[in-house]
Specification:
It is a single chain. It is built from eleven helices and 17 strands. By secondary structure, it is an alpha/beta fold. It folds into two domains: 2-161 and 326-378, Quinone Oxidoreductase, Chain A, domain 1; 166-322, 3-Layer(aba) Sandwich (Rossmann fold), CATH 3.40.50. Strands 3, 4, 5, 8, 9, 16 and 17 form a seven-stranded mixed β-sheet that branches. Strand 10, helix 4 and strand 11 (204-209) form a beta-alpha-beta unit. Helix 3 crosses helix 4 (188-199), helix 3 (162-172) packs across helix 10 (327-339) and helix 6 (235-241) runs parallel beside helix 8. The radius of gyration is 20 Å and the shape is globular. The N and C termini lie close together (7 Å). The relative contact order is 0.16.
Length: 383
């Protein structure tokens, strides 16, 4: 089968790989129809995540059709159209029993922290991802769900991570009616977090970024106020000024490990790999929120330390909430919002790229070319 493979930082290509096979009675093999490149895939592409091995196939956002099932699979049949959450999880361990699917204890040798994630290095279990013609889906009775007949493919694929994560980010903010919410980053997760904040009762939603095409999307898709941090001497001071010098009630970091805005921190983390990520957006969030406020962290960071203003967070009495999104826990409510027309996930899709051209897609997404916000990968398996 054809699959995207990692060849080293900034180098990916499509190669022939062995078609995945059933390795456990509860496995399924899914023929991929549609995948996506996520902003966190760029952390892998740039060499930010440890133990990303040559030959690994990325892709944790994908949907497709069940092609084969193991002998113990009961909930799926060959031919079912399915959406697969980015979490690999068992459904029965201590953490899964509490809905913490992203922290499953049985799917990752490194499970003292994160659970399993498709296509996200051996740090998260080494599972090949969905930027390929076929993918092995473990625990097939637990993770995947059949796509409702009324749901379009391009909406379904965004529920496997981007929309669910953005919604979860707003949820972690404990937003109450009338709250002022600042979202740092207007990539797909930031856009969905901003949109979701309104659904949770926010009275004001502000989005910060430095890319004008993304800020325009934040205005049109998420109906948010927007500020370009490059146009202000100090974006934190600006946020204080527009919030009666109190700060926002909730701040959401939807940027993560490769945040721009501070050259030294960006170089030491994104370039020299001396930190687990550039903490610029997270520190801005800590500084911009009011005393007693809440900071929600959705951006992905590596396991190394980051120069986070933890003392400021402590002295301000902040609540810090964060995790990888337990995707399937969000689906019932998100299905309602999509079905009722409150959310149209595919509105943020800007590019559709055939699997054969995925290397160009990664380059465009990494270099922020052609106004790209969310690229989908179209897959047509041949065998």
């Amino acid at each position: 089968m054809k699959a995207m493979t990692y060849r080293g930082p900034y180098r990916v290509r499509v190669e022939e790989k062995d078609r995945p096979r059933i390795e456990h009675p509860n496995d399924a093999i899914v023929r991929v129809a549609l995948a996506a490149i996520c902003g966190s895939d760029l952390h892998l592409y740039h060499g930010m995540m440890p133990d990303t091995r040559v030959g690994h196939t990325f892709g944790h956002e994908f949907i497709g059709v069940v092609d084969e099932v193991g002998p113990s699979v009961e909930n799926l049949q060959v031919g079912d159209r399915v959406m697969v959450p980015f979490n690999v999880f068992c459904g029965t361990c201590f953490f899964c029993a509490r809905g913490l699917y992203s922290n499953c204890h049985n799917v990752n040798p490194n499970a003292t922290a994160v659970g399993g994630i498709y296509g996200y290095s051996h740090t998260t279990g080494g599972y090949d991802g969905g930027q390929a013609e076929f993918v092995r889906v473990p625990f097939a009775d637990v993770g995947p769900s059949k796509i409702p007949d009324w749901m379009e493919d391009e909406d379904a694929v965004l529920l496997t991570d981007a929309l669910a994560t953005g919604y979860f980010g707003a949820q972690l903010g404990d937003i109450v009616e009338g709250d002022v919410v600042i979202v740092f980053g207007s990539g797909p997760v930031g856009l969905f977090a901003a949109k979701s904040a309104w659904l949770m009762g926010a009275g004001r939603v502000i989005v910060i970024d430095h890319l004008e095409h993304r800020l325009e999307k934040a205005r049109t898709f998420a109906q948010a106020e927007t500020y370009n941090f490059t146009e202000h001497d100090d974006i934190v001071v600006k946020m204080k000024k527009i919030t009666d010098f109190l700060g926002a009630d909730v701040a959401i970091d939807a940027v993560g490990a490769e945040a721009d805005g501070n050259l030294i921190q960006h170089v030491t983390s994104a370039k020299l790999k001396l930190q687990g990520g550039s903490p610029v957006a997270l520190n801005w969030a800590i500084d911009s929120v009011r005393k007693g406020g809440t900071v929600s962290v959705m951006g992905a960071y590596g396991p190394l330390f980051s120069a986070v203003k933890f003392g400021d967070a402590m002295n301000k009495g902040l609540t810090l909430r964060m995790n990888q999104c337990p995707v399937k826990r969000q689906w019932p409510r998100l299905f309602e919002h999509v079905h009722n027309g409150h959310l149209k996930p595919s509105d943020i899709v800007t590019h559709r790229i055939p699997l054969e051209h995925i290397a160009e897609g990664y380059h465009m997404f990494s270099a922020k070319l052609d106004g790209m916000i969310k690229p989908l990968i179209t897959v047509s398996a041949t065998s």
